[in-house]
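tool=predict chain=A
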Amino acid sequence: VQLQASGGGLVQAGGSLRLSCVASGRTFSTYAVGWFRQAPGKEREFAAGISWTGDSTYYADSVKGRFTISRDNVKNMVYLQMNSPKPDDTAVYSCAADRYGPGSRLREYRYWGQGTLVTVSS
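tool=predict ok
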């Protein structure tokens, strides 16, 4: 499975932005997917995860209620809708996939894509 995140850019605090993760591979629809982020000078951290069916979603406390993860298995896409972003959400966002999960730890994901930079201005 190959993954590529896109949709990053500059957004004002309180605005909205949607990130996309496109995957190759016909079995992608059977993989759980997670969004992780890494802020400057900080370790990569879990933001959100979704089961392969899309029925179960999980969020870090820091984004709960503001971000929404979803997927379209027909298009091999996973999205992260970012509403009311804050300057603290500034980071490189990456998507990752694995047959099991979604977990919240990096080691639980086998496949990783290149990230996309999100900058939130105050």
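The CA atoms of residues 35 and 95 lie 5 Å apart. The radius of gyration is 13 Å.
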